[in-house]
Design a protein that fits this description.
This protein is mainly beta. 0% of the residues lie in helices and 33% in strands.
Length: 100
């Protein structure tokens, strides 16, 4: 969907083995469909979280007129070894600063 309001569909991509902050911590990037530039990036700092294993649009859960997204950390150990974690990111947060 169009996250930045420019009329072009944007693209969200998870890089779950990305290791700039910690080994296999992962990151997710939102790219402009019009220019290809990175509109937003979330970088996980938890080793082996595999954040960005999945990154999908899930409709407008909070009814603010913007598509919301589901992001996962498939190997997160938050509730036991490799139990996984799910993040829901509001569409408004897709183009504003901050962390999920």
């Amino acid at each position: 969907g169009d996250c930045d309001g420019d009329g072009a569909a944007d693209l969200i991509i998870g890089a779950w083995t990305h290791s700039s902050a910690a080994p296999s911590a992962g990151c997710v990037r939102l790219y402009s469909g019009r220019t290809g530039e990175v509109l937003r990036q979330w970088t996980c700092k938890v080793p082996q979280e595999t954040f960005g294993f999945d990154a999908i649009g899930i409709g407008d859960l909070d009814r603010d007129g913007r598509r919301d997204f589901l992001l996962t950390g498939a190997w997160s150990g938050v509730a036991g070894e490799k139990s996984g974690r799910v993040y829901v990111v509001a569409g408004e947060d897709m183009v504003s600063p901050g962390q999920p």
